[in-house]
Amino acid sequence: MAYSEKLADRTRELIALTHKNVTEKKMFGGLCFMVNDKMCVGVEMERLMVRFDPAKYDEIMEKEGCRPMDFTGRVMKGYAFVGIEALNTKRKLEYWIKLALEYNKIAKPSKKKK
């Protein structure tokens, strides 16, 4: 198993409460949730990948279980990994999902490959 099915189910359930235009794509060995055709959150191994407003980067990095997303070998501002130990309650997971969904409203979609 490349990603936590349980975390993916919990994430799916929370997003579905407020959003209909959601697709799931397997990528990077995990599962990415695309909301309104934009990358929003993903589940990879035992952690959540969260996309958020880059202007909040320093504030977000201080949160429990949060670390920079350096998937490509360099830090990507506006993205973070959150360890499963910091997602052990519905309320904690909701915080991260809401953060990502809030930014999703203004985030630019990825460029489509031709």
Could you explain how this protein is built, in words?
This protein is an alpha+beta fold. Helix content is 27%, strand content 28%. The chain is built from three helices and six strands, in the order αββββαββα. A hairpin with a 2-residue loop joins strand 3 (38-44) and strand 4 (47-51). Helix 1 packs across helix 3. The longest helix is centred in the C-terminal third of the chain and has 15 residues, at 90-104. It is globular, with a radius of gyration of 13 Å. The mean pLDDT is 92.
Please mark out the parts with pLDDT under 50 across 5 or more consecutive residues, or reply none: none
CATH architecture: Alpha-Beta Complex
Please tally the β strands and state the result: 6
Oligomer: single chain
Domain tally? 1
Overall average residue pLDDT: 92
Q: What is the top-level CATH class?
A: Alpha Beta
Main sheet properties: 6 strands, antiparallel
Separation of the first and last Cα atoms: 31 Å
Shape: globular
